[in-house]
């Protein structure tokens, strides 16, 4: 199986970080590695991560940010480093392991089996035979938001906010993380909006053809989550920001400049 690196943003995760699970995973899957981004934690998170790196530097890297910058920026900086590390796939995963690490090979398998896909997004779909344990209020608020995000993006997506995502290492995907996000709570939606702009301005393949949603076999709400119900209302304001900056019909300029050779390749594929 191809190598993959997973970015794990951490902010004051001393009591929730399951170090043993990460060690067990790399023992079973030595082709996988993890990049932990310490987002200016004020507890013992930095020490725990440094000890983990010292014990196994081949599988565990640590990026320390000087001060707390929020999950969006922690993920962005981690993904910038991961996408330039020479692996085939790079993604990000929530530190609380709400999505079990055992799911990573399933994400990798989807990209290996479907070369036309460039990203795999976890989807928390409660189906028979699957263990999706989510608080009822958060589930219903999440469905309302997901429907709104789907409408804004013009994309039939079920779950934008699951904290498990994997990307094929391409110049297009590298460009998605090139500049700071305008949002913090829903930067996942902003990533997709940026991909929409790559279609519009550079002729890159459509999201419908390159994004795959993978229904998770297991997911659970973990105590101590930093996301509260009222944050869903903040998310709607950020959704308006995304629409105005990336998706309104009168928009004249993209969020970034794609490298010339990628622009040429993308237009050739579109043709």
UniProtKB/TrEMBL annotation:
Its EC number is 2.4.1.-. GO terms for molecular function: glycosyltransferase activity. It comes from the Bacteria. Keywords: Glycosyltransferase, Transferase. It is an enzyme of class 2 (transferase). Coiled coil: none annotated. It holds the Pfam family Glycos_transf_2. This is Poly-beta-1,6-N-acetyl-D-glucosamine synthase. It comes from Gimesia chilikensis.
């Amino acid at each position: 199986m191809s190598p993959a690196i997973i970015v794990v943003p951490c902010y004051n995760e001393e009591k929730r970080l399951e170090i043993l699970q990460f060690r067990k995973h790399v023992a079973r899957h030595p082709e996988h590695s993890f990049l932990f981004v310490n987002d200016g934690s004020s507890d013992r998170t930095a020490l725990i991560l440094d000890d983990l790196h010292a014990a196994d530097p081949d599988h565990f890297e640590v990026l320390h940010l000087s001060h707390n910058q929020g999950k969006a920026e922690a993920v962005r900086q981690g993904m910038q480093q991961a996408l330039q590390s020479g692996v085939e796939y790079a993604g990000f995963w929530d530190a609380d392991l709400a999505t079990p690490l055992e799911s990573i090979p399933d994400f990798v398998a989807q990209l290996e089996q479907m070369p036309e896909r460039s990203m795999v997004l976890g989807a928390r779909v409660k189906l028979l035979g699957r263990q999706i344990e989510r608080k009822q209020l958060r589930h219903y608020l999440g469905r309302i938001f997901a429907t709104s995000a789907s409408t804004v993006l013009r994309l039939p997506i079920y779950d934008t906010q699951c904290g498990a995502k994997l990307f094929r290492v391409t110049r297009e995907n590298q460009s998605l993380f090139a500049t700071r996000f305008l949002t913090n709570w829903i930067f996942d939606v902003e990533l997709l909006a940026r991909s929409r702009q790559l279609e519009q301005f550079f002729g890159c393949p459509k999201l419908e053809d390159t994004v795959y949603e993978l229904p998770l076999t297991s997911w659970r709400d973990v105590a101590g989550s930093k996301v509260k119900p009222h944050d869903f209302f903040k998310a709607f304001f950020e959704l308006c920001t995304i629409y105005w900056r990336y998706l309104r019909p009168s928009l004249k300029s993209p969020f970034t400049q794609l490298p010339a050779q990628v622009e040429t390749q993308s237009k050739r594929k579109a043709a």
